[in-house]
Design a protein that fits this description.
The protein is an all-beta fold. The chain is about 0% helix and about 55% strand.
Length: about 325
């Protein structure tokens, strides 16, 4: 039975779990620049203790996690999608202008704009092992590899599978310890080997394709060696990262976009725009333990601060980032 709990004015939905129950209280709602809408990626940067948000239309908002306030809006970045960072720069994909935009952390100014070789750049990752920035091109179905720094330079491209995708790639997870970028593409999960610069193993999950694809965002859990893969099919797939075999399938309320992971509390978060909220799963028990209804459509991306365990959920239609703190979480 669902249990409704009112904590400090916030509506929290919890599900019973074997180790007790976990709920969430709303800490605050951070108003964003511009107009509400779809927007895109959210990522937490421990180096600056900031949350970066790809806004609807244009711009990347920088939120100070200590104050829960917008520090700046880096604009124009038209149609911002994926965001990654290193110690000095933030890298954002501008989908509407086909650019990789580099932002300096010193002053939050745009350091450079580099035209991508392919169109509709989406996911972005920083590979610390090779000192490179990886950009997924949705329309070309490849990964573009750039040198990192103030002015990235294109080094190579890596073709993805399948050869003729219907939806194309989404945003996977880079596991530097393995030298692999795990990518979703149509209904596939594939390994991009960053030493050979080729796709190795690729597995068809047989997820039914929607307009926005099949397999979506994912996280890697090094303790269990599991990949948690969001899908458009109202389910989360748990895969063995060594074989890509499916270990478990757990239900979701709607299609998933971004997936986040709190290794300290062993919790996996899936952000589901149509469900107007995010769900919480136990990484160890591989089952759903909570659901938080933000009340806003387009709550399809978010991330977590692993130190404070606070969740930053992009609530697109309300044009805010909701900040939620776990209550009763057993470590």
């Amino acid at each position: 039975m669902l249990v409704l709990v009112c904590v400090l004015g916030a509506l929290v939905v919890t599900l019973p779990v074997s180790a007790g129950s976990i709920g969430y209280r709303m800490v605050t709602k951070i108003s964003l620049p511009g107009k509400g809408g779809h927007g895109d990626w959210v990522t937490y940067d421990p180096g600056t203790n900031s949350v970066y948000v790809a806004l609807h239309g244009s711009g990347v908002a920088v939120i100070g996690a200590a104050t829960n306030k917008v520090v700046t809006d880096v604009d124009p970045i038209k149609g911002p999608n994926g965001i990654a960072y290193d110690s000095e720069y933030v890298y954002a994909a501008a989908g509407d202008t086909n650019e990789l935009v580099t932002i300096s952390k010193k002053d939050w100014k745009i350091a450079s704009r580099v035209k991508t070789k392919g169109t509709s750049p989406d996911g972005v990752w920083f590979d610390s092992t090779h000192g490179t920035v990886l950009v997924a091109s949705d329309d070309k179905n490849w990964i573009e590899v750039y040198s990192a720094g103030a002015t990235p330079k294109l080094l190579r491209t890596i073709a993805l599978q399948p050869a003729n995708p219907k939806a194309g790639p989404d945003v996977g997870v880079l596991v530097t310890s393995k030298g692999i970028l795990y990518m979703p593409d149509d209904a596939l999960v594939e390994e991009v080997n960053l030493e050979t610069n080729k796709v190795g193993r690729a597995v068809d999950t047989h997820v039914k394709l929607a307009k926005t694809g099949g397999t979506k965002g994912m996280i890697y859990d090094p303790k269990t060696n599991h990949l948690w893969v969001g899908t458009t099919a109202k389910e989360v797939l748990v895969l063995d990262a060594s074989t890509l075999a499916t270990v478990a399938t757990v239900p979701a309320r709607s299609g998933i976009d971004e997936v986040a992971f709190d290794p300290g509390l062993r919790l996996v978060y899936t952000f589901e725009g149509s469900a107007k909220g995010f769900e919480v799963y136990s990484a160890d028990e591989m089952k759903r333990v909570a659901y938080v209804n933000t009340g806003s459509g387009n709550t399809h991306t978010g991330d977590v601060d692993p130190k404070t365990h606070r969740v930053y959920a992009y609530e697109g239609d309300a044009n805010v980032v909701g900040v939620y703190a776990p209550v009763g979480a057993a470590k």
